[in-house]
Amino acid sequence: MRxxxxxxxxxxxxxxxxxxxxxRVGDILTEEEQERLVMADxxxxxxxxxxxxxxxxxxxxxxxETHLHRSGFESDIVTGVVTWLEELGYVDDxxxxxRYAEERLTQGWGERxxxxxxxxxxxxxxxxxxxxxxxxxxxxxAGEGLEAVTAMARRRFGSQFALDPEAASRRLAAFxxxxxxxxxxxxxxxxxxxxxAGKGESAIDAGRGLD
Length: 211
Description:
CATH class of the largest domain: Mainly Alpha
Distance between the termini: 65 Å
CATH architecture of the largest domain: Orthogonal Bundle
Number of strands: 2
């Protein structure tokens, strides 16, 4: 509901706030009354802001908090909105972590990278670790992730292993490390690509050219 003062738009109010205040056309509002109305409307504006943010994609509670703080809302309002969203099921960090990890791991991200991303988004460490343990326990899941990153590495660096295996090994190691893979996985993929290129061993196996 838009409130007009002296024929000019002054501020908007949620319908529930206007109803509770029993506003009628022609009412005269003092400055104090205007301030009270705006304050009463603040939680509803924060909810609207949060719902708009959620409409783009699923978010964690921390992401909602950060967005609302940056929009100028006070901490008590922000906390109330996040609690409200959690009660409605619109925000669920455990669900977010499960979906995020499943998607990223099947796209070829390593567990370390996924863990760092989730922690950075404010998901509790216990939830992150339980989620990754559950993903690792699914039959074939780890293999799928390694297959995906191997396919990406093959497209990017496969031909380079035949021309300059040491340079290709450096690029592969950097690429996979950024995606959160440990040295064993990097060595395994490097060995596979070197073999496909007709090289007996990769520079990663030999320990050359990676310093």
